[in-house]
Design brief:
The structure holds 2 protein chains of 2 kinds. By secondary structure, chain A is an alpha/beta fold. Chain A is 42% helix and 11% strand. Chain A is built from 11 helices and 10 strands. Chain A has helices at residues 19-37, 44-55, 78-81, 95-104, 127-138, 166-169, 175-202, 218-234, 268-278, 295-312, 336-348; strands at 5-8, 14-17, 111-113, 145-149, 207-213, 240-244, 257-258, 261-262, 282-285, 317-319. Chain A is globular and about 60 Å long. The two termini of chain A are 36 Å apart. The radius of gyration of chain B is 17 Å and the shape is globular. Chain B is of the alpha/beta class. Chain B has a 5-stranded parallel sheet with strand order 2-1-3-4-5, with helices on both faces. Chain B has 9 helices and 5 strands; from the N terminus they run ααααβαβαβαβαβα. Classes of the chains: A alpha/beta, B alpha/beta. At the A-B interface, α7 of A face α4 of B.
């Protein structure tokens, strides 16, 4: 069988695979996701549709008219002005110019503003400036304009923060102390998320994004959930997008719960339910891309997880299609052939409500 | 009886029970079990199971830390019981975990099996810089340099070693072998390493093969 279908590996390398190899990777990919998350595999028909999307000879692919979905921005405008080391292109634009360029020149569905550190904690001491910038820019935009950053629990551990460093305590076998430190840090984090969200809401915030929640583990995820619930109590009309950071919540603590659900090890179909319970309006899911596996394998896994999450959720599910996530190869500038195939498959087969 | 000990070893690691792991290691050795077999049939299946469960979100960091400590304590005892290769050395094997990476359980198991198979082994430990690998290989007069990396971000250390060996004109002098969870045959080929070992037993086989063809 000839190796005549051009695709990529998870690290972005171009490879040519045969139809048989692609079908096999699709099958093993969906089986892997199903086994891990305890969800159904893609049906034979879905696998064949995925094969068609991947093996389409066109460089880019798309959904049919009428099947388009919204793309929620999570820091894309930052890519205009940040340098290559921040995965950006280094164009000399102000934050406002970048947001407006993204909206007006690129036709973005939504835009967003974020601090260059992209964490909430550093925004706290400069909230007046940040709220002012947000307000001024929001006077110029038409599309929904989010404020976004990552919760990033790591910033609350010494030497960057007040709490004993859990990552140092854990390898020393001080597990109870490490857990207590994470719980204490999560308290600080939730408070800061609510503070920043509330202050931005005061100037007419159109949407808040807790991006990559849980990147520092289950206590990080819990703090974001608590903050969503508290913000919804204080500002019920504030739309909140809470996105996850991986296909399961990392158990750095292992025992924290939200409303009776243990967060460690929670897969997307469980993540979206706790995000929904907290009161968020959109749930973001992120599936890890394995760099040593092919795009067909990675995408098949991602579609399997996303389909299960979409089926379980009563709020819109937006799949993260950034670098190294949901089947997109791990490259700073993800290739368009892969991005379009991943997007089409996640929408048509994964039933994602947005990207 | 040995089956019972192997099961007890795996169970001790899975539960992160250091006392039980040490007790099982001592008991197995006391009953005359081959140390290499005790690692291969008992403790390694346990730590592999822990790795699989951690990788799929079924077991979490605190449990992983306890399991790793239990494994380390058990392998320390077993390593002491492994006789150094008798008679002529099969070759000199230098090994370490690359810079920025502090994982060394897998690497320590490779050390055990290499020693058991008659190699003279120098273990540089973890977080080893490229320069240190090259200097130590020169002093030790290594036949093979083995590098371990557990993270995709630290795998670059394996590539750097290949680049620096070539720059220094030493690529022909040392054979190189790479391993670690994210490392593949494809990666080895891409960076120009001489061999990729999926696990410790394969590392031994490949090391023997590399020296036979040298």
């Amino acid at each position: 069988m000839s190796n005549d279908i051009v695709t990529r590996m998870g690290d972005g390398e171009r490879v040519q695979l045969s139809a048989g190899e692609i079908r096999e990777d699709i099958q093993t990919g969906t089986a892997d996701a199903a086994q891990r998350a305890g969800v159904p595999e893609l049906t034979a028909q879905e696998q064949e549709r995925l094969f068609d999307i991947i093996s389409d000879p066109s460089r880019i692919v798309s959904v049919n008219p009428g099947e388009e979905v919204i793309v929620t921005d999570d820091g894309c405008s930052m890519s205009f002005y940040s340098g290559q080391d921040g995965a950006g292109v280094g164009v000399p634009l102000s934050r406002m110019q970048a947001v407006l360029t993204y909206e007006r020149a690129c036709g973005a569905d939504t835009t967003s503003l974020g601090h260059s550190d992209y964490s909430y904690k550093p925004v706290k001491p400069i909230i007046n400036f940040e709220a002012n910038d947000y307000y001024n820019t929001s006077m110029m935009t038409t599309a929904p304009f989010f404020y976004g950053a990552q919760p990033n629990l790591g910033l609350y551990f010494q030497p960057d923060g007040p709490c004993p460093n859990a990552a140092e305590l854990m390898p020393m076998g001080k597990i109870d102390e490490a857990r207590r430190a994470q719980e204490e840090a999560a308290g600080h984090l939730a408070k800061d998320l609510v503070f920043v969200g509330s202050r931005l809401a005061d100037v007419g915030l159109e949407g808040l994004n807790f991006d990559t929640s849980g990147s520092a583990g289950d206590a990080d995820f819990m703090a974001a959930l608590q903050a969503v619930a508290e913000l919804k109590r204080k500002v019920p009309d504030l739309p909140i997008l809470m996105g996850a950071s991986g296909e399961f919540v990392l158990g750095m603590h292992g025992e924290v719960e939200y409303e009776g659900t243990r967060l460690a090890g929670l897969y997307p179909q469980g993540q979206v339910k706790v995000i929904e319970t907290a009161g968020a309006d959109i749930a973001g899911v992120a599936i890890n891309t394995a760099t040593t596996e092919s795009l067909p394998w990675n995408l098949s896994r991602a579609v399997t997880f996303v389909k299960a999450a979409s089926g379980a959720s009563n709020i819109p599910v937006h799949a993260n299609v950034g670098m190294g996530v949901c089947g997109i190869p791990m490259m700073e500038q993800p290739p368009i052939d892969s991005v379009t195939r991943v997007s089409k498959a996640l929408v048509q087969l994964g039933k994602a409500d947005g990207l | 009886m040995s089956t019972e000990i192997f099961e007890s070893a795996a169970d001790a690691i899975l539960k992160g029970d250091s006392d039980k792991a040490v007790e099982t290691a001592k008991k197995g050795l006391g009953e005359g079990l081959d140390p290499v077999m005790l690692i291969n049939e008992g403790f390694i299946p346990g730590i592999n199971k822990v790795g699989d469960m951690f990788g799929s979100g079924k077991l979490f960091l605190p449990e992983l830390i306890l399991a790793a400590a239990a494994m380390q304590n058990a392998t320390d005892i077993i390593n002491e019981a492994i006789p150094e290769g008798e008679g002529q050395s099969r070759g000199r094997f230098l090994i370490g975990t690359v810079e920025g990476d502090v994982h060394d359980i897998g690497k320590t198991i490779v050390v055990s099996l290499m020693k058991a198979n008659g190699f003279e082994v120098m273990d540089l430990g973890r977080d080893v810089s490229t320069d240190r690998f090259i200097e130590a290989a020169d002093k030790f007069n290594a036949d093979i340099i083995g590098t371990s990396a557990l993270l995709t971000t630290t795998m670059e250390g394996q590539r750097r070693l290949e680049v620096e060996l070539k720059k220094a004109g030493l690529k022909e002098r040392f054979k190189t072998m790479v391993g670690g969870a994210p490392v593949t045959q494809r990666w080895a080929k891409r960076i120009g390493a001489d061999a990729f070992a999926e696990n410790a037993s394969e590392a031994v086989k490949l090391a023997k093969a590399l020296l036979e063809t040298a």
